[in-house]
Structure formats: C-alpha cells, structure tokens
Design brief:
single chain; 5-stranded antiparallel β-sheet
C-alpha cells in the first residue's frame, strides 16, 4: 500500500512539474516600440492573455477595453482583418499591407486612397498563441494618397521558456476619424468666406 502511495505521489509531482514548465503566457518584453508607423513608436499599448482581437465579425476590442480612453473617445470600428489564410479586404478608404520577415517580426503599411487628408486613432491589434496586444497610434495623420510604412514584432512569452510565439492574425480598429482639407483648399475656403462677407456687407448697406 505504501509503495502504491509513493508511486501516486511521484506521478502527481511529475504532473505538477510538467505544468509549471509550460507556465502561462505573459507580457514578456512587450512594449510600445514593438509596433511602429511612419518612423514612430506606438503611443500606448496593452497586452491581454486569452484575447483574440480577430474574433467575431466586427473584431474584439475587449482586450484593450478602457486602456486607451485617455487618448480619445467614441466607439471603435473594425477597419480590416488579416490572417494567414485570408489577406486584407481593403474595401475602405484606408488600405493596409502586411508582411512577415519571420514568425515573430515583419512590416505593415497603411495607404489613404481617399481624396482628403485624414486624422484618426488607429489600433494595430495582433494575436499569437493565446494572447493579444493592441498598439495605439493617437491622432494619426495620413494625407490623401500617402502611404505610411511600419514594423511589428512579437515579444510576449509563452510558457516558462521565454519563447516568442509566432504570429496568428491581426485586426485594425479606428475611431475619431476626421477628414481635413488639403492645404491649398484652405485658401479657397478663406476666399469663399471673404466673398460671403462682402455680399453680407453689401446687403446690409442697401
């Protein structure tokens, strides 16, 4: 009986050691400079175990929740999705590109295909293993016809061996989107306002 008990205790210990060796997914070395755009690091980031921003028809923003509230307001909208089986749809004004140099690093881009300059809060949210991270570009300006290039890398850990997991999928979200006139259009706008002012003045004197 004692021999059986010792064997069961040894087996249980082995299972516990095996479980601890795998460990849980953790933030590791994840930081705001893991994703860049136009030569600049992200303004803020959030890491969340168990989160897949790609999930659902409209993506899942629960992983960054209220973390980016200090940078703006309004609801987040899914701009586009990417995974290894299906590329971007690129159906909107903003069109995205994505490439992998390895399983844990690569490049991405955003192109403004519309006629007006744009400013928006933009979140690059990627998923790997059983975790996700969102990277915020606050008040990101993208001029009409402009393409901004960036980089990405995954630096969170899976298990106790501090290994970086390979990329799985990506979702991009936006809010506070505004279109700005081209610089030359400001002159036209001011000239138009001047004409309206003259007309109003003439009407008041007649």
């Amino acid at each position: 009986m004692c021999a059986i008990a010792r064997k069961l205790a040894l087996a249980a210990t082995s299972l516990l050691l095996a479980a601890s060796a795998f460990g849980a997914t953790g933030i590791g070395n994840t930081s705001a400079d893991d994703v860049t755009l136009g030569g600049f690091d992200a303004d803020a980031f959030v890491f969340s175990a168990g989160w897949n921003p790609h999930a659902g028809v409209n993506g899942d923003t629960s992983g960054f929740g209220t973390a980016f509230d200090a940078y703006g307001s309004g609801a987040w909208s899914l701009l586009d999705k990417y995974d290894l089986n299906a590329g971007f749809a690129n159906m909107g004004v903003l069109q995205f590109g994505f490439a992998m140099n390895s399983g844990t690093a690569g490049t991405w881009s955003v192109h403004n295909a519309g006629p007006a300059n744009m400013v928006l809060d933009l979140v690059f949210a990627m998923h790997a293993a059983d975790a996700g991270a969102g990277f915020l570009f606050d008040n990101q300006a993208i001029n009409a016809g402009q393409t901004l290039n960036g980089t990405w890398r995954i630096e969170w850990f899976t298990g106790a061996n501090n290994a970086y997991p390979d990329f799985s999928n990506l979702a991009l979200f936006g809010r506070d989107v505004s279109a700005l006139p081209e610089p030359g259009e400001y002159g036209m706008l001011l000239a138009g306002l001047g004409v309206l002012g003259l007309l109003a003045r003439r009407c008041s004197t007649e």
